[in-house]
Backbone:
């Protein structure tokens, strides 16, 4: 559920001006119930000025009355048409300073494994500029020799759902353009769940395709008589009588 702005100041106002339970106020503001109790005891949010949710179009008096009459009633944030779409991110993604040095590796990964993504899509995913993407595509980046491709999801630069959505959009565009994709390209363009559910069996190389049932014939080997050996055949030595006779003849 969407939380009100200035949640702590709103909780201060509700504690001071209503008989709502601590649990109701905590659920509405997204705070812990003990924190709301601390506000009532004066231990938390000391000096914080209350923020009127009714005057600021976040609650109605009728909703507060329902909550005061029924301790189990959950307060609902007032619908504000002007706030629709405010949570949608606009413009380039903000990347924390600690992760900005990882962007070239993420760009390299996207360029290598998802070449179907446009520069604009990559820029939105990792929060970079088109000149940087182009430099990595053309391998003219000043540090290209030291850049290794790393998954931007693993680096925390984007979510897996965002990457899957961009890949699906690229797949739809390629299908609309009538581009014929290979099996490897088609595997890259599906979502993670679909890719993991595919059959990962080894594919037969095209050079030997059609020889799946080929086997070596063993007819010739079967026709050869089988020779059996035993221990006696290896250790039987010839008789020494003939050798003794030859030695005697040589002496004569």
Residues:
């Amino acid at each position: 559920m969407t939380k009100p702005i200035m949640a702590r100041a709103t909780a201060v106002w509700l504690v001071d001006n209503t008989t709502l339970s601590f649990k109701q106020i905590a659920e509405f503001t997204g705070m812990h119930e003990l924190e709301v109790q601390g506000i009532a005891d004066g231990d938390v949010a000391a000096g914080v000025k209350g923020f009127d949710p009714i005057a600021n179009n976040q609650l109605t008096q009728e909703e507060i009355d329902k909550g005061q009459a029924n301790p189990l009633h959950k307060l609902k944030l007032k619908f504000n048409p002007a706030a629709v779409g405010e949570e949608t991110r606009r413009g380039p993604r903000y990347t924390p300073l600690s992760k900005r040095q990882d962007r070239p590796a993420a760009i390299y990964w996207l360029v290598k494994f998802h070449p179907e993504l446009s520069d604009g899509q990559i820029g939105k995913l990792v929060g970079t500029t088109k000149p940087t993407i182009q430099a990595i595509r053309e391998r003219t980046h000043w540090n290209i020799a030291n850049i290794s491709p790393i998954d931007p999801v693993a680096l925390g630069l984007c979510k897996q759902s965002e990457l899957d959505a961009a890949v699906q959009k690229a797949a739809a565009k390629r299908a609309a353009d009538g581009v014929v994709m290979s099996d490897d390209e088609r595997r890259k363009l599906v979502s993670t769940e679909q890719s993991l559910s595919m059959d990962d069996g080894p594919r037969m190389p095209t050079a030997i395709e059609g020889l799946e049932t080929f086997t070596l014939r063993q007819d010739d080997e079967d026709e050869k008589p089988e020779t059996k050996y035993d221990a006696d055949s290896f250790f039987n030595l010839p008789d020494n009588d003939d050798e003794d006779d030859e030695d005697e003849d040589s002496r004569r």
About this structure: The chain is about 45% helix and 0% strand. Residues 160-176 form the longest helix (17 residues).
